[in-house]
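Before the break, one more example. Copy the sequence into your notebook; we will annotate it together after we see the structure.
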Amino acid sequence: MSELSSKADQLKRQADLLGLTREAVFTDEQAKEVLQGKITDGYLVKVKIDLDSLNGMVLILVSSIRKHIMELYAVVGTSPTFRRIRTFADHVQISTDLGDIGKSGGYDPAISENIGRAVHRAFTKEKLEELLPLWQKKDPSHITELLEKPILTATKGRNIKLQAEVDKISTAKFRYENPMKGVILPIPRPDDEAESAQDASIPSISTEPPKGEGSALDRQIAQFRVGFPKELNMKTVISPINGVEFDNLIEGMEILFRVPTETPEGLTNAQILGLIDEEGKIKKEPVVGKFLGIASNKTEYHIFAEGPNQYLFHSVEEHPVKVAIPKPATIAGSGNKSGNSGSQKKKPGSNQPQESKSSGANLFMLMGAFITIVLIGVLIFVMVIL
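Here is what the structure looks like once it is written out:
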């Protein structure tokens, strides 16, 4: 039994790693190459912070393929453990130390979250595209100068010193084996609309591109986000046979999504949508959203829909797919309809005895007329002879 249990655990681990890897790449083939060690799908940016009387660490997990932040942890406070953490140390050891700090309560959650949000806003997709080639060469330059002003602004600090290192890493293994799980939650990306309004005075870290700048895709995405209080990252439910193609989707049409519950952010979103029961079990039923539109640049397709409570659903596909839609409510009653139609088809059959009776009567009448004609002919023949 122990051997079977060990194999089951190994299979579960592989399945979990595959699911996490898919979130950092575009194709299943890329996911397999990452798990086989042929390619690496991400970087871990390690930033040590000395801010006035506080110390801390920021860990930024970046997908080098999708070019966006997967997870961001910010832990800042007064714990003496911070002083012995070094940016060049192994990320597992750093994560373990941060987890211990979280358990002891030696950090300030509010300041940590402010710093995390500021870092999120500083690492725009355009900025990541500039930095990724440098990280490929193990060059962490420009990170400290990029983050100094946003962190000082977010904390109203005076003196700051930053040290940064970048490690090439498997994003799935980092997330799967993270010692901070259940102790320190990653800082979510701030809502674009609220943050851009709040930080309009800091153009260097604003996520809203200036007029006339930014890619066409960014401008398309920004239009869909207007008016929604919160955006939830989702996965499109794909149905290759019965699904609806992108070109046939109509605004307001109901389409199906799933919450990627492999991440802490996904679990939070599942809780927001009421998909976790009192026992902590996650409902497997898909969530319905009303289709709003698609923003694309022929390499990325961003699907937007309005979910419950005016949440904005956002999923990304690398190529056009057939999107699943809810089954019509009338399908359940289609059996009755088919049954009725069947019974209607049987009604003509129920008249078959009557038809056979009428056809039989007609036959007897024809036979009688034929016999009468024959008898008359015989009588005429006899009379002629006599």
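DSSP finds 13 helices and twelve strands in the chain. Confidence is low (pLDDT under 50) at residues 193-213, 330-357. Try to locate both features in your own notes.
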